[in-house]
Amino acid sequence: MSTAYLSHPACRRHDMGPGHPECPQRLDAIEDWLIVHGMDAALTRVDATEVDLRTVELAHTHGYVAELADLLQSLASTGESRAVDPDTVAMPHTWAAALRSAGAAVQATDLVLDRKASNAFCAVRPPGHHATRDQSMGFCFFNNVAIAARHALDNRGLRRVAVVDFDVHHGNGTEDILAGDDRVLMVSIFQDPLFPYSGAVPKGTNMVNIPVPPYTRGMDIREMCEAQWFPALEEFRPEMIFISAGFDGHREDDMGQLGLTEADYEWFTLRIMDVAQRHARGRVVSVLEGGYHLGALARSVGAHLRALAGV
Ligand SMILES: [Zn+2]
Questions:
Q1: Torsion-angle region of residue 132: left (phi > 0), alpha (psi -120 to 50) or beta?
Q2: Fewest beta carbons within 10 Å, which of 141, 174, 209, 290?
Q3: Mean pLDDT of 83-97
Q4: Across residues 90-118, what is the average pLDDT?
């Protein structure tokens, strides 16, 4: 079994306009890195399928899904675009991309549970962790990780899953959806204060939130995770671990001011895999969130994938 790498050309066609940091070139930069570093031998490439809307409704309200489907399908047919918040633009290709992004996370979950892949990474956009139960925001429409986590629990019968979020921004959408669901433990670290200005006070007892000030360095972040994340994960004994893999905490990424490097992303990955090995038969599904400095993003995803694939 190898590491599955899920993506789809539709994820590239969602384009929020010139100069927008959450751009199609993010996926190109990752792809180039994989080619230059000969990673294809270590990965099994999978074209992501479209998500089933009934599965989306395990994480989002029926009303939200119906309203978003209406809007995005109408944009797809008229060719128009519309801002859904000051940072987030829905355009004609957004619907197809959103279906494939959430579809990738769900399909990756199935591949890993069915032992067709040892673990999986979804190179997808739009990202998901700011999408709440009933609201698009912060470049996100469907909460890919929350949908996949609920799929693992509700459709596949797992009893406990963990979500690890190391994006520089607080995963407020994932917290909104999963807080209070005692089948889930979510652990996260994020810069505070920073968009979306939440997370300092967790919304549920199943949330381990670590807000850190700007300019915190990797070694300090590792220490905080060792003290707070990993004891909670060991005690929870997740049967599967989902990663909201955002790389915008990299020191070269000016979306935030954290000091993470490729070595820190490798460390996160190996430590998470170590927990998964003990409690979850190694089952890890990682889904791309942020990461906006193209070079740092590609190198960091590379370090993450090398760790996942063991090469
Ligand atoms: Zn982010």
A1: beta
A2: 209
A3: 97
A4: 98
What Rg do the C-alpha atoms of the chain give, in angstroms? 17
| Ligand 1 geometric centre to CA of 157 (Å) | 30
CA 111–ligand 1 middle distance (angstroms): 26
Please state the φ and ψ torsions of residue 45, each to the nearest 5 degrees.
-80, 135
**pLDDT grade for 222, boundaries at 50, 70 and 90:** very high
Amino acid at 97: A
- List, as ranges, residues with CB under 5 A of the ion ligand 1: 167, 169, 246, 248, 290
Would you say the pTM of this structure is higher than 0.90? yes
Say if residue 1's pLDDT is above 90.
Answer: no
Q: Count of H helices and E strands in the chain? A: 10, 10
CA distance 84 to 138: 9
Give 130 Cα–ligand 1 centroid separation in angstroms.
9
Q: Residue written as tokens 């009934």?
A: 54
